[in-house]
Amino acid sequence: MTTTGEDHARGLTGPWWWARWRSAVLDGSLALVSAVECAAEGIPFARDAGIPVSVGIVFGLLAGSVLLVRRKWPIAVVLVAIAITPAQMGFLLGVVGLYTLASCELPRRIIGALAGMSLVGTAIVTFVRVRQDMARGALTLGDWFVPFAAVTTALGLTAPPVLLGLYVGARRRLMESLRERADSLERELQLLAERAEERAEWARNEERTRIAREMHDVVAHRVSLMVVHAAALQAVARKDPEKAVRNAALVGDMGRQALTELREMLGVLRAGEELVRRAAEVPLAAVREAAAAAASRAVAEDGPCLSELDELIGQSAAAGMVVDLAVEGESRSYAAQIEQTAFRVVQEALTNVHKHAAGAKTHVRLAHRMSEIAMQVENEPPPEPGSASAAGLPSGGNGLVGMRERVVALGGVFVSGPTDAGGFRVSAVIPAT
């Protein structure tokens, strides 16, 4: 299991400058051993120096106890070890001090200078000591042994702790770097997770908007006509049974058409569920491209086209609306999304006439131009004031918003508003490319 930087920071529970209690116990133990060693070595030093033995013991205890602060002031520990080298004291103090110094994050020149001072000091003291022993006859080797012993002893007491300290320090820095990198990666993963949630939320919102628009376009027109025909059926059921039968047949046909379009739309929505699931795994731009591609495929496979415009107007005429269709320019085929948008604009405009101006004469104009297609649906004032809601048709107020969104999404222009004569006009221009 990886330990992050925050977990490492929470683990700093030791006293004073120690990160952990076990580090404090280790340093205390080393300081105690070093103090005992220096105190023992202080006895011959005091005798050679001609001072009281108690002074040598106290001096050794104080010098050896400096190892307690090796993590806080490693330079001071090494300097004390170098200072007591002529007294032949502080073997453990010098070795542990050099190791701690080399493992700290100090400039290399400081580590090298102090290690060199310790090396030279140890070599000089060893050289003098061995030479004195040879002069007293304690050693009977040749003169070559004196420099050999001095160099070997100095290197043996200096090089291993320094090299080990450098290795441990480099390893510690590597682990800290890896820990920081792990923290950075964890933060990046959190940011990516948040962005993935945002992408998924964006995809869900886009899907909800598209569902609402398609539901409105598919259901509103058919159901509006069904309500109009049902009201007419109720009015003529007893007076004209044959007309009532025809109206009932029209209601059934429109209901079946509405169900067919709903089934087609639900098929598109099932395909869109996969898009929403993939939204959290791909970049936002790719999600937008996939959404546009899915919408284009859905339009091409299941959307209405301009060739069905006559049937649409015929259904409104059958519901009692007087509709005048005028087509300008040479009729031609367009991209599926353009044809569907043009059809939906006319369909929604006619639905609004049924809702808000029942019985009003309506003019539908379609113009095929060189680089665009234009459509306009304009109704005259209703013949009877107050007949806007005669059929009891509800209005959510989203029809014009949906038309505008469709047209603007294709780079077109949408304008709607009341006319001077008291009617209402819906106009749209869509680029043909």
Topology of this protein?
Elements: H1 5-10, H2 21-49, H3 53-65, H4 74-83, H5 91-103, H6 108-136, H7 145-236, H8 241-278, H9 284-302, H10 309-318, E1 323-328, H11 336-356, E2 362-368, E3 372-379, H12 399-409, E4 413-418, E5 424-431
Parallel strand pairs: 1-2
Antiparallel strand pairs: 2-3, 3-5, 4-5
Helix pairs in contact: 2-3, 4-5, 4-6, 5-6, 5-7, 6-7, 7-8, 7-11, 8-9, 10-11, 11-12
EC number: 2.7.13.3
Keywords: ATP-binding, Coiled coil, Kinase, Membrane, Nucleotide-binding, Phosphoprotein, Transferase, Transmembrane, Transmembrane helix, Two-component regulatory system
Protein name: histidine kinase
Structure explained in plain terms:
- The protein has 433 residues and is an alpha+beta fold.
- It has 2 domains: 5-190, no CATH class; 305-433, Heat Shock Protein 90 (2-Layer Sandwich).
- It has 12 helices and 5 strands.
- It has helices spanning 5-10, 21-49, 53-65, 74-83, 91-103, 108-136, 145-236, 241-278, 284-302, 309-318, 336-356, 399-409, and strands spanning 323-328, 362-368, 372-379, 413-418, 424-431.
- Strands 1-2-3-5-4 form a 5-stranded mixed sheet, with helices on one face.
- A hairpin with a 3-residue loop joins strand 2 (362-368) and strand 3 (372-379).
- The longest helix has 92 residues, at 145-236.
- The radius of gyration is 47 Å and the shape is rod-shaped.
- The model is unreliable at 1-11 (pLDDT under 50).
- One of its GO terms (cellular component) is membrane.
- Residues 207-272 form the Signal transduction histidine kinase subgroup 3 dimerisation and phosphoacceptor domain.
- It comes from Streptomyces yokosukanensis.
- This is histidine kinase.
- Its EC number is 2.7.13.3.
